[in-house]
Sequence to fold (1008 residues):
Amino acid sequence: MFRDRNPAARDNLEALKNEIELDEHKIPVSEVYRRYGTTPAMGLTEERAGVILERDGPNDLTPARTTPEIVRLAKNMFGGFAMLLWIGAFLCFIAHFLELYTLEDPQNDNMYLGIALASVIIITGFFSYHQEAKSSKIMESFKYLVPQAACVVRHGRSRNIDPENIVVGDIVEVRRGDRIPADIRIIRAHGLKVDNSSLTGESEPQSRGIEYTNEDPLETRNLAFFGTFAVEGSCIGVVIRTGDKTFIGRIANLTAGVQSGKTPIAAEINHFIRIITIIAVVVGVIFCICSLSLGYTYVEAVVFLISVIVAQVPEGLLATVTVCLTLTAKRMARKNCFVKNLEAIETLGSTTVICSDKTGTLTQNQMTVAHMWFDNHIIDADIEAFQSKSNYTRFSHCWKALTRCAMLCNTAIFRDDPENMLKPILHRRCEGDASETAMLKCMEATVGSVSTYRTINPKICEVQFSSSNRYQLSIHSTNDNDERYLLVMKGAPEKILKNCSTIFVDGSELDFNEFWKKEYEKAFKELSNLGERVLAFADYRLPLNQYPKSFPFDCDTINFHVNPYYENFNFPTTGLRFLGLISLIDPPRVNVAQAVNKCRSAGIRIFMVTGDHPLTAAAIARATGIITDESPTETLLDNINDKTARTCVIHGNTLKNLNKQQLDDVIKHHEEVVFARTSPQQKLIIVESCQRVGEIVAVTGDGVNDSPALKKADIGIAMGISGSDVSKQASDMILLDDNFASIITGIEEGRLIFDNLKKSICYTLSSKIPELAPFLFYMVGEIPLPLGTIAILCIDLGTDMFPAISLAYERAESDIMQRPPRDAKHEHLATDRLIWMSYGQLGMIQAGGGFFVYTVVMAENGFLPSRLLGLRKSWDSRAVNDLEDSYGQEWSYEQRKALEDTCHTAFFVTVVIIQWTVLLCCKSRRNSLFRQGMSNQVLNMSIIFETVLAIILSYTPYINRGLMMYPLKLHWWFLPLPFTLLVFVYDEWRKLMIRRFPGSFIDQETSY
Fold:
């Protein structure tokens, strides 16, 4: 279906972003024949078609370059934070080999640490790859837009060929249900309607015919495009574009060529890595210089340098971040937000602008009767409103005539399925045009059984709606004791108006004079300004003497092959009685307005980007609260150059004439913007403009036309129900219920995960100082090592992991959707204040508690603090087996190492116990713990978990010796409690000062 070639257009995205230029819809069809050397009767010869096929290539789409799976896996293994851990693991192995070849009694701690780091990277790398694996089959999704066979005229004969062999100049035949095999100029049509939603986003099938109606190729009626569906009628056309040169082909190449930028969370993680790396290297170099000045050898100084750097690497943080994002993704999936790219979760929380499609996202993607005009009154078509006016409608003769016409001049039916018929009327599936389906449901709900009514008023003949006549009529015999046939007609108001001579008002048939025409114009304008599609209805009683029973009505004399405007019925279609208007709209979803209001309070702007008409787009934007200006749409269209105006509506034709700077100014200076009649290329240009002015952009879409913008956006959001495969592949997130309101859930979750990741980082980094300080005193004070590498691993990859992850379950603080979006340039995941809070405050208290317990354990075993200073070399020497303590007792090497392992265990337990309150302090950044509460049951369980794990590691035989730990005396467990209380009291006081004195020194220096 695809071919392996790489055209220059793929590398020239700017050219692809420009609107396609063609004039085949403007020129006479005879000129089209001459240009492509074809005729409607004969088509191309096989020889000529072969030459063109050789020149232009097959009628298919160029495949995109795909990233090999091994490369995607490597990115997860070596990208971002993982690379920092790999460097740490590599340094650990270097340190181990240096000790192995220089020390008489080398330890294996660094080797174990290196292995642990490598294991963490590999496990989390595979986990991330599995969770974040995005399908790279975007271009393959386009192949489903290609028909399986096409009917063409070659050498005067119709034949079915492979669509790949279609060339420009071919005459193709399209029937109902076919996909259009290429971009074609229509030369003959009979009732053709095409589903253009993949290109324009319009939910209703569009009429197509031979007439040139608009300069815009997407708007004119005489073109049909590759990959769209013929939902009704048939046509014959001449092929004018194939393959990559078609509209869909350009979109496919544009989608494949667009590069999505780095997500905000990825940038934040890189920023965090830089901070940690700088701190680790600076501290490590200081330690190295100090150790050399203290007389250590170069090898020992390098080992110290490596040990300090590795000690600053938060080994468990990569797994914590990945698991937190995954848990949030699963929580969002339960709320109908399926996340394909884990990093996209936080991006949604950082979003400042949402570029939303209209059809199916903000609206229900289901045409609904909105209003009716009869008896010179506009009536709301809501069922409850009808019931409240039941007396009025019950006795209105015009109402009865209008509903009769709407029921009979309608071909839509409910699907004949018992299960379907048991559903509520509005939820029943139907067969037929979207507008007729809407009227069918409305009549069924307000009048009664439409099928029964049609049965007792049988149809004699009908003329289907076509783009040329723009009306539909049918003739019926009725059961109302009137033997005359009834002709009913509906269609475009201007067409019906021309065919009417009278109007039915308040039970009287009046002359359709200037007064009533003005009243009609007033009603039509009012309904049109609401963005509703308006249809007019009329009827006529055929005289019995001219049209007796069994009269042979002829409805098939329109020769559309020769002249689609030629009508020669054997019954009248003028002099009708005008009944009224029915307007339809694709209504907004029920909770969209509330969702838009939440976005507004959260400081997020919403731009509507749609292919629909400006009037319709503006009406839906007003109904949903996207624009609040009640000025006429014509005024809003003129606001584009007024920088003081809050709201503007921009037509796609106007957008074509704006340069980058002008579009950027529109984005910057207008709070509320509606882009109407936009093309796929323009949607992409709008996204790029938003990004240029510093916005974090989320884009929603469901059609093939949305895929370039979805891929370029900071986060692309596709529709799960109505979305095309192409849009789903190009997106980062899928709304499973197609509901815009679900995005609000995603925004809140995105903001929450950023807050909670800050808390997790603060919690995780707070144990780095108590892990680093023992090395400092070990080197400078030459004391026995207070905390070993294995114990550090038990903290980072054991007791700290579950509590850090549990913070992902912490509920949002009350102002999360009232504050503006995060400023990605200034508000980082890891800030200097967060580092100061973790290292300089919480970490220092933990380190103090650890050394306190260490000195107590040593003192109870005979080594007072004064004896510990300068003891390291003798303590670590295997040759010394008679080392005296403060009381003169002699200690062998094995006895000393057992005591050292006991100290490691005590220091480890101290960190665990103090981390209890550190975790409670990290539950909120400003709220008191007493206000935030203890409702996070996962966090409560994590405190129990880390405590039980510490007990298991300390007391379980074989496990404790394998980890170089020793059981502790019971009273040693209570020694850290004062430091635990100190952390809690200090943090509650700090948060109280922040709340009472916002902007104070404490707020500025400790609020992270």
